[in-house]
């Protein structure tokens, strides 16, 4: 399960120091410097490379290992070693930073979209725009939202020619995972049908949650969501608000629209129709005591284990601003100290091919980051859930792309704003106190340059 948590802040200066100390030697097992080796079984001399992702479970890790072995066997000049990162949330990124400083990090690795700027500004990952052009790796083949954050000039904080910090591995989006049996038992309206009829509004959503809670049986709750930035952030976006100003240089959490979204979220929890804020919503959903569980596509493999009730997914309810689901993504990036940038780009090219993205999507956890009707059509065949269209609609209907703060510090923003939101949700401050203090807290934390 991929529960995103508040990030532990590593000061930028520390990251830069770590980067400056990074070794390009292969001594002691460092992968930052891979060296070519000959292989009689391959058509060209193979370069040794290590690469890493953060799989959610052993089944996903096994798929990546199989992909890695298959690429090696193709004879394209890559002799690969795959490593499964086994820590959730910020510890995964923090470990990478430590290894990058020590010269022991992999040549290619995956990181969340929010962390791209942090790694790039610290000099930890390679700008491989020139190498990608030489290899024929075209960023325009992928969704615009992630690419806009991967082609940024750090000096201006805006997309510019000559920059490419990574290629998106996949995209995801939120949906409501539904216990259809609980909904039927409570006599509540079906969110899937309400959405088809254009009636799936915040008010209807609250009504369904209340109905499930009241009539679903002992211990049943209508709604659950985990307590990280994207869950409450959706309601902020859907109210017409946002985390940041349009140029992403200032906090916007105190705007009237952003506060309205946060107030709805708070009122929903105060209604008594939800699992307690801060508690993991996935176990009670899988255990059959939650009617609607808000989570990303990555929750699908776990939901496929459910045998005791009928489940499906529905779109998120619509607030004042249509669309505005999150477009989650992460990217394959290249160690700035790799001795073989051309080979590393070749690996990124292989890992983001349509064929490999299809294999990853078949697990049910991700949507391919490549654009195209043929890619979407294939994704729709990966069931359950039956209503995969809910995820596709979230990706294509004006989503808000997860992205880094190029002119600021995302970990600092995340921690400061999350501390205030936790205080609000736990009753320590009022909505008015939250509105008057949340942006100041992010500024005081050093979230903006």
Question: Could you explain how this protein is built, in words?
Answer:
The protein is α/β, with parallel strands linked by helices. The chain is built from 19 helices and 14 strands. It has helices at 12-20, 58-73, 90-102, 116-121, 129-135, 144-150, 180-186, 191-196, 202-215, 229-238, 256-270, 282-286, 300-303, 341-351, 354-362, 373-379, 389-396, 410-425, 431-444; strands at 36-37, 46-53, 78-84, 108-112, 152-153, 158-159, 167-172, 174-179, 221-225, 290-296, 311-314, 326-334, 367-368, 400-401. The strands form 3 sheets. Strands 1, 2, 3, 4, 7, 12, 13 and 14 form an 8-stranded mixed sheet that branches. Strands 9-10-8-11 form a 4-stranded mixed sheet. 52% of the residues are buried.
Key phrases:
alpha/beta; 449 residues; eight-stranded mixed sheet; D-Maltodextrin-Binding Protein, domain 2; 19 helices; disordered N terminus; four-stranded mixed sheet; 2 domains
Count of folded domains:
2
Q: What is the number of helices?
A: 19
DSSP strand content: 5-15%
* Uncertain parts: 1-42
Tell me the layout of helices and strands:
Layout: H1 12-20, E1 36-37, E2 46-53, H2 58-73, E3 78-84, H3 90-102, E4 108-112, H4 116-121, H5 129-135, H6 144-150, E5 152-153, E6 158-159, E7 167-172, E8 174-179, H7 180-186, H8 191-196, H9 202-215, E9 221-225, H10 229-238, H11 256-270, H12 282-286, E10 290-296, H13 300-303, E11 311-314, E12 326-334, H14 341-351, H15 354-362, E13 367-368, H16 373-379, H17 389-396, E14 400-401, H18 410-425, H19 431-444
